[in-house]
C-alpha cells in the first residue's frame, strides 16, 4: 500500500489538471501555431508559465486503483502487476486466464 499522502497529492493534481485543462489546451495551441506572430506565441508561453505547476497533465502519476502503487502499472486494467496477478488468479478479472504452454 502506497503512502496515503502520495495518493492524495496525486488526486489534488488530477483536480488541478481538470480545472486548467481548457486554458492549458488553448494556450498550448497558440504557442505551437507557427503561422502566428512570434510575440503572440511568446505571450502564450508566458501565460502557460503562470499556470500552477501541478496543473500540467504530465505531473499526474499512474497509480493502482486498489493499492496506490506507482510502479508496475497496467493501463488497460488500471492496476499494479501484483494486484492484477492476485485478482486474475482468483478469477475476478473477466477474460484473463493463467497461461501455460
TrEMBL record:
GO cellular component, one term: small ribosomal subunit
Keywords: Ribonucleoprotein, Ribosomal protein, RNA-binding, rRNA-binding
Entry's Gene Ontology BP terms: translation
Pfam families: Ribosomal_S14
Superkingdom per UniProt: Bacteria
Database matches in NCBIfam families: PRK08881.1
Subunit annotation: Part of the 30S ribosomal subunit. Contacts proteins S3 and S10.
Stated name of the protein: Small ribosomal subunit protein uS14
Organism: Sphingomonas leidyi
Lineage, uppermost ranks: Bacteria, Pseudomonadati, Pseudomonadota, Alphaproteobacteria, Sphingomonadales
Encoding gene per record: rpsN
